[in-house]
């Protein structure tokens, strides 16, 4: 897998409450952005550290763009997951590996981590864009 640091939203970001990742500035241009320069790009979100909480916490992940870097004006949601329970969010779990949806992207692009029934007491996540997502899955040892 090829990973460009400039296409990285978060690298083992500790999440305890809802938060926005780093954002990528797509530049001031028409709202229809050609992200990937004509080649497909994939959004990959993965778990680096087990999510834990005193209660039954969940996290939903969404790819959003907005005219402001804090994604607070009127963010456009391009992809979202359902709320995922803390037990599922174990190290190595791939939350998403999806082709970037086509559409109109605003200037700033980022990932929103929405924690519900929280807060989390631990949990780290990575999110990035890549032209070559991993095509294999780690399986437990059969021994």
What is the gist of this entry?
The protein is mainly beta and 143 residues long.
How is this structure best described in words?
- Strands 2, 4, 5, 6 and 8 form a five-stranded antiparallel beta sheet that branches. Strands 1-9-3-7 form a four-stranded antiparallel beta sheet, with no helix packed on it.
- It has strands at 8-14, 19-25, 42-53, 58-66, 76-80, 84-85, 94-99, 108-116, 120-130.
- The chain is 0% helix and 48% strand.
- It has 143 residues and is mainly beta.
- The protein has one domain (5-26, 39-130): Sandwich (Jelly Rolls).
Secondary structure elements and pairings:
Elements: E1 8-14, E2 19-25, E3 42-53, E4 58-66, E5 76-80, E6 84-85, E7 94-99, E8 108-116, E9 120-130
Antiparallel strand pairs: 1-9, 2-8, 3-7, 3-9, 4-5, 4-6, 4-8
Give the overall pLDDT as a whole number.
88
* Poorly predicted parts: none
Instruction: State the CATH architecture.
Output: Sandwich
State the CATH topology: Jelly Rolls
Give the C-alpha Rg: 15 Å
Structural class: mainly beta
Main CATH class:
Mainly Beta
Strand element count: 9
Count of spatially separate domains: 1
Query: Helix count?
Result: 0
Principal-axis shape: globular
Fraction of residues in H or I helices: under 10%
CA(first)-CA(last) distance? 29 Å
Report the major sheet. Answer: 5 strands, antiparallel
Summarize the helix and strand pattern as letters. EEEEEEEEE
Q: How much of the sequence is in beta strands?
A: over 45%
Descriptive labels:
Jelly Rolls; 4-stranded antiparallel beta sheet; mainly beta; 9 strands; 143 residues; 5-stranded antiparallel beta sheet
């Amino acid at each position: 897998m090829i990973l460009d640091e400039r296409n990285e939203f978060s690298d083992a970001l500790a999440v305890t409450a809802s938060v926005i990742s780093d954002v990528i500035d797509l530049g001031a241009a028409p709202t229809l952005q050609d992200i990937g320069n004509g080649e497909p790009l994939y959004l990959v979100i993965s778990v680096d550290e087990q999510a834990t909480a005193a209660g039954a916490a969940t996290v939903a992940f969404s790819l959003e763009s907005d005219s402001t870097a804090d994604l607070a004006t009127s963010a456009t949601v391009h992809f979202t997951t359902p709320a995922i329970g803390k037990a599922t969010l174990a190290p190595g779990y791939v939350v998403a590996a999806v082709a970037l949806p086509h559409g109109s992207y605003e200037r700033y692009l980022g990932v929103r981590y929405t924690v519900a029934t929280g807060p989390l007491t631990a949990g780290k996540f990575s999110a990035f864009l890549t032209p070559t997502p991993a095509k294999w899955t780690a399986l437990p040892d059969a021994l």
